[in-house]
Amino acid sequence: MSAHFDVIVVGGGPAGLSAALILGRSRRSVLVVDAGEPRNARAEGVHNLLGQEGTAPRELVRIGRQEVARYGVTVTDGRIVAASATPVTADDPVGFRLTLSSGEVVAARRVVVAGGAVDVLPDVPGLAEQWGRRVVHCPFCHGWEVRDRRIGVLVTMAAAAHQVQLFRALSDDVTAFVADPDLLDDIVLAGFAARGIRVVRTPIVRVRSDDDALSGVELADGTVVGLDALAAASRVEARVEWAAGLGLTPVDQEVNGTVIGRALAVDVVGRTDVPGVYAAGNAANAMHTVVVAAAAGSQTGAAVHGDLLQADVAAAVRGRAAEAVDATFPVR
User: Fold this and answer.
1) Cβ neighbours for 254, distance < 8 A, ≥ 6 positions apart
2) 221: exposed, middle or buried (Cβ count in 10 Å: 0-12, 13-18, 19+)
3) Cβ pair 42, 33 in contact under 8 A
4) Do the strands 213-219 and 224-226 form a parallel or antiparallel pair, or are they unpaired?
5) pLDDT 10s digits, 20-31
6) Would you tell me how many other CB atoms lie within 10 Å of the CB of residue 6?
């Protein structure tokens, strides 16, 4: 593997591979470093991705790796453990050196952060074991699969009131578990009542499973409520610890005043505050689904190519000027 690339993409999911694809097709040398820990690994399939509906997450990555390889992109398994900003060519003042978990140091003129995120789940025993199967978080990603079933929604933030109604659109049997009486106002509760949504105020103490399938939830008073699916919002934390060496730290991301996670701050094409460093997918937006992350990666890849092109043009102009000076004052 070469030690020097135009671009290093950290993360080989939909965002990272989409960025690598457009860069490879633009004849850039690209290295993708992938830790092999996709956020959606436990899901049975990817949904709402036209042409790949229902494809298993790891199969989608396998296909993506094959596609970028056709354009000369190098993909390696591993993770980045350290990073520093250091020019790597004489013609470009921007550059970076990244250290892999293997100890190898690779360099690039630009970096795309696309390592995704992890879901920090509500601290309820039994919930994590069903995450991605019958404990779900997104009505668009998983709602069809639990339609017409007994669905519970764990309401831990005010924004979850909208989630309750979204699941109600998929089933007539929806129960909202709202332990905090201050989370929902009378208008929201009136909407629940009008749509036949039950409200349970007693806290959930355990998610119950029978034969590895979710069967319901146990409440603090010992009551068991039978369910086929439970929706629960996670806190989405971007995998960007290594980027602290570049001066980047994640910031809170909010929806309607509620913090839903932390990710890197970027502009519309994925530029961070550090020149030459870009981010896409869940590393930059806690709400990105697979299809949106892929689109963001493609957009960011195009922006990185444009950035490099500007640097190439500037270097060519400087070289032309230097040649003109040498021709005017020849060395004797």
Assistant:
1) 260
2) exposed
3) no
4) antiparallel
5) 999 999 999 999
6) 21
Spell out the residues 6+ positions from residue 59 whose beta carbon is closer than 8 angstroms to its own.
none
- Can you read off the two tokens belonging to residue 179? 């332990």
What pLDDT shows up at residue 330? 57
The list of the chain residues with pLDDT below 50 reads: 331-332
Cα–Cα nearest to 114, from 71, 68, 159:
68
pTM above 0.85, yes or no: yes
Nearest CA to 133 out of 14, 214, 59 is that of 214
What pLDDT, on the 0 to 100 scale, is given for residue 160?
Answer: 86
3-state secondary structure string across the chain: CCCEEEEEEECCCHHHHHHHHHHHCCCCCEEEEECCCCCCCCCCCCCCCCCCCCCCHHHHHHHHHHHHHCCCCEEEECCEEEEEECCCECCECCCEEEEECCCCEEEEEEEEECCCEEEECCCCCCHHHHECCCEECCHHHHCHHHCCCCEEEECCCCCHHHHHHHHHCCCCCEEEECCCCCCCCHHHHHHHHHCCCEEECCCEEEEEEECCEEEEEEECCCCEEECCEEEECCEEEECCHHHHHHCCCCEEEEECCEEEEEECCCCCCCECCCCCEEECHHHCCCCCCHHHHHHHHHHHHHHHHHHHHHHHHHHHHHHHHHHHHHHHCCCC
Angle, helix 57-69 to helix 14-24, in steps of 10 degrees = 10
Q: Beta-carbon neighbour count of residue 327 at 10 Å?
A: 8
For residue 194, the model assigns a pLDDT of 98
Q: How far apart are the C-alpha atoms of 106 and 264, rounded to whole Å?
A: 23
